[in-house]
Amino acid sequence: VQLQASGGGLVQAGGSLRLSCAASGRTFSTYSMGWFRQVPGKEREFVAAVRWRDGNTLYANSVKGRFTVSRDNAKNMVNLQMNSLNPEDTAVYYCVVDDTAFTTRRMDYDYWGQGTQVTVSS
Asked: What parts of the chain have a pLDDT lower than 70?
C-alpha cells in the first residue's frame, strides 16, 4: 500500500488547513485510515482515525472539536480538516492505513505515508 499526503503548509493561529491522503495498491483490504503527528524530539502521537466500513471516528483529546477526519471510499482517500489551529499543532503529519486495526496506538498501524509539514505561527 502506498500513501500520498498533501495539504500541509504555513498558517496563522486560528486558521485552518485541510490534509488529504490517497491510498493506492492493496486498498481492497482497508479497514481504517488516519493521522499521526510528530514534533522533533517527541514521540509520534495519534491525531484521528476513521473506520472504513461505517465511518466511525476516533480523536485525540487535544484535537476534539477542532479537527474532523473523513473518508472518501470511492477515491480511497482520507481527509483531515483542521480548524482553530494553534502553535501546538505544529508538527509533521503522517497518514496511516491498516487492514485490521482501528485504534489510537501507533504500533497497530502497518502502513505509513511520508509526512507533510504543518506549521502554525503565533
From this structure: 27-28
